[in-house]
Amino acid sequence: MTPILQVENLTKSFGDLVLFEHISFGLAEGQRVGLIARNGSGKSTLLNILAGREGYEAGTLSFRRDVRVGYLEQSPSYPAGLTVLEACFHHGNPTVELIKEYERCMSTEGNPGLEQLLERMDHEKAWDYEQKAKQILSQLKIRDFNQRVEQLSGGQLKRVALANALITEPDLLMLDEPTNHLDLDMTEWLEEYLRRTNLTLLMVTHDRYFLDRVCSEIMEIDDRTLYRYKGNYSYYLEKRQERIDARTVEVERANNLYRTELEWMRRMPQARGHKARYREEAFYELEKVAKQRFRESGVKLDVKASYIGNKIFEADHLCKSFGSMKILDDFSYIFARYEKMGIVGDNGTGKSTFLKLLMGIEKPDSGSLDIGETVRFGYYAQEGLQFDEQMKVIDVVRNVAEVIELGDGRKLTASQFLQHFLFTPETQYSYVYKLSGGERRRLYLCTVLMRNPNFLVLDEPTNDLDIVTLQVLEEYLQHFGGCVIVVSHDRYFMDKVVDHLLVFNGGGDIRDFPGNYTQYREWKEAKERHDREQQAASKPMSEERTPKRRAEGKRRMTFKERKEYESLELEIAALEDEKKELEQALCSGSLTVDELTEKSKRLPVVDTLIDEKTMRWLELSELES
């Protein structure tokens, strides 16, 4: 395979904190590599270094000549005033620069160099760039191409940046948490898209199914060192455990030998004066190995839920709408003790609104919620928690409680509790502003769980959490002695934690599915396959009728009708996109009164236009071409 990138002896630190030192690796054409590490270990920093956005202390980076690099950063930003489509042209790449060069040529008298530019435009397929951008944006459910970027949510902005990274089909594509803010359908589309392409991929993600299906190699940064595994995520788990087991045996062996050598070193100098100096040097090397510790070994979150009675909550004929868009339509449900419910559905179908209704943050239009007296909610909001940047991590926790009750008379200090969440003593006394995005989310989760809730309401808890933390959280939720409702796009997480799903289909259509996400997906695919077979079985009947209609003298389309027919297909598709965009906007809850009124009036107009144009399209399709 042709090499694309070679990294040699790379070292990066922030003050006294060394993220990684003397790491070396290469990427070859077609390789798909997943990068795994704890939060704060330097995953995003490494991608920023490779993208040329951050410096480093030592080492060399060597890219293949003329290699095209695409980069999706974790928190993208664009200048205010740009439209969605302009944002896709904003971050310079060879195709965009070529288009700009062509536009300058066309606006210059005499069009100097036009012939060569036309050849380059053909070679780079630049004529299709805008159409391709619109197609990818539509797949990511961004359909208002003229919307200003400052009006987009953080999730929408991330999807625009993802489209920006995919459009040019770079030789090397680097993605930092690409599945954050994607619903399940978009995640599966992205999976399939990346599997079909031949580009080289380096990706940071916590989505383990995504890693398994897209990446064929895993790189892990652990204790400042880089390890490589030639296989997918499942293979990595197996081989990593073998590495840890082998290292543990090595440390134990070193400890046994260390005790013997330590006794020898402690003897009077006269007793060991005739010994070789190499034995003393070997002792200090042995000491380094013997004193190694594995920070995650034995980590287990074991916080007991407070007592919860038989009555949890009852939803009685709940209704909630934003304008003409229904979120809940006469919804009733009785929640059972120790129930673990997952909520799935496309963005904009009302999942977060449902949780806010439950927490009393939003009020229903009608109906009631009756919550049991013993229920103690622990709410993890998607927006996260705003911390005082100048506080130390340990003080954030101490402000909630100095001592955390585990049940059975057991207690943990704030410092001990933080260690369960993988915060080392050094990190605990560091300031909040120094934490990575994932570490902040982990600290927020810590403040939620330490209050001993018996009913956890978790809205996208997996975003920005590293895989080690996810594994700890999964094990905790599996054995949690209370109730759980979780909204998540992490399919692996949902499979591990929930026992049934509420599926939000939009328009107030909510279905209860008795199983986890994988089981739901298998059922859905089987149903879609059955529907296609039923449709195919009905085709012969329509084909039998077609010759009869033609025999009765049905004429062919005129040229003008053919053009109208083709135009209608595009117009109907555009109207369908506008309808979906209007429904999502009405569901967002972020519109002003004027915007809400305007879009509520526009939606029935669009529906009428779709019906009229569809009828005309059907009339024309009856004609023989």
Could you describe the 3D structure shown?
This protein is an alpha/beta fold and 625 residues long. Among the domains are: 3-237, 3-Layer(aba) Sandwich (Rossmann fold); 238-290; 552-622, Helix Hairpins (Orthogonal Bundle). Helices cover 45% and strands 20% of the residues. It has a 6-stranded mixed sheet, with helices on both faces. A 6-stranded mixed sheet has the order 14-17-18-12-19-20, with helices on both faces. A hairpin with a 2-residue loop joins strand 15 and strand 16 (410-413). Helix 3 packs antiparallel against helix 4 (114-123), helix 5 (129-139) packs across helix 6 (154-167) and helix 9 crosses helix 11. The longest helix has 34 residues, at 233-266. The protein is globular and about 105 Å long. It starts with a strand and ends with a helix. Residues 294-299 and 541-553 have low confidence and may be disordered.
Give a quick rundown of the structure.
The chain is α/β, with parallel strands linked by helices.
CATH topology of the domain at 3-237: Rossmann fold
Q: Name the CATH homologous superfamily of the domain at 3-237.
A: P-loop containing nucleotide triphosphate hydrolases
Which structural class is indicated by helix and strand composition? alpha/beta
**Extended strand count:** 20
The whole-angstrom Rg is 30 Å
> What is the CATH domain class of the domain at 3-237?
Alpha Beta
CATH architecture of the domain at 3-237: 3-Layer(aba) Sandwich
Distinctive features:
625 residues; Rossmann fold; six-stranded mixed β-sheet
